[in-house]
Amino acid sequence: MSCDELRDGYELYALGVLEDPERSELREHLGRGCEVCVAGVKRAREAMAVLAETVPPVAPPPRLRRRILASVGVERSRWWVTPMWVGISLSCLVAAFYYAGREHSLGIQMARVQTQSRQLLEEAARLNEALALLNQPETKQVTFGEGAPKPPRGRVFVNPRQGVLLLASNLPPAPPGKIYEMWIIPKGGNPVPAGLFQSDAEGAAMHLRRGPVDVAATGAVAVTLEAEGGAPQPTSTPLIVAAL
After folding, report:
1. Residues 146 and 231 placed together within one structural domain of the fold
2. Are residues 214 and 180 in the same domain?
3. Which end of the chain has the lower number of beta carbons within 10 A, N or C?
4. Do 77 and 123 form a contact (C-beta atoms < 8 A)?
């Protein structure tokens, strides 16, 4: 086979999954010092090394999936991130990188993969924080939306040191130009903004507001629908109210 015919197998060879007869042909080229194939395989191996470095091991504690899903009552498989899951996702990204087309430059493809890998890591870190809050003995939890057929339902977890975690289901994605905003409502005084978030296409949402909370002085945690960018004070009727 010619170098042009083997060119599309460089990445697969670097991953160790290229099959015969291409594998044997490429090894023959490499064995005789073919400059084109040697350089191509070297670039492919360097690319795979960079991909591996973009996703370090991530190991959320093993009870995360059971605790979070049980608290909401909705099966949300994407909230469970393990090293195996990250590895599988990275493998899919590598495959997408390979089959996306040779017309794009390696630099553009690598940037895309690295961005997606960072998103996986950010999600895993967020889940680690959520589990840490859930497992603290001083964390207080309250439910909302029980007994109602349609309104959002779920739980709010409040920890005096780590913050407030909201888990909701049946919360439709905010319409264009709008976003959900969480509020910490003291027993006396004005609501305090506690961050912006969006639900997914299935109506599930997880939002963590980090930082100390005076639980004794907090009367409720609420959610309103606001203009994109949020508001300093609520401008609409709360969709969620979890009284503490």
Report:
1. yes
2. yes
3. N
4. no
Q: CA–CA distance from 80 to each of 18, 61, 111, 159 (Å)? A: 32, 10, 25, 22
Is the same domain home to 4 and 47? yes
**Residues 83, 124 within the same domain:** yes
Task: Count Cα atoms within 13 angstroms, Cβ side, for 136.
Answer: 18
What is the spatial distance between Cα 238 and Cα 244, in angstroms, rounded to a whole number? Answer: 16
Which residues make Cβ contacts (< 8 Å) with residue 101, sequence separation at least 6?
Answer: none
Place of tokens 């010092």: 33
Number of domains in the chain: 3
- pLDDT: which is higher, 63 or 199: 199
Buried/exposed code over 77-99 (b: 16+ C-beta within 10 A; e: otherwise): eebbbbeebbeebbeebbeebbe
What is the pTM for the complete model shown? 0.56
Contact (Cβ atoms closer than 8 angstroms) between residue 180 and residue 206: no
Counts of helices then strands in the chain (DSSP H, E): 7, 8
> Do 39 and 85 share a domain, yes or no?
no
Choose one of 85, 100, 135: the last residue of a domain.
135
DSSP letters, 84-95, are HHHHHHHHHHHH
Mind listing the pLDDT tens digit for each residue in 47-91?
A: 655 554 444 444 455 455 455 555 445 444 344 444 545 555 555
Look up the domain containing 182 and give its range.
140-243
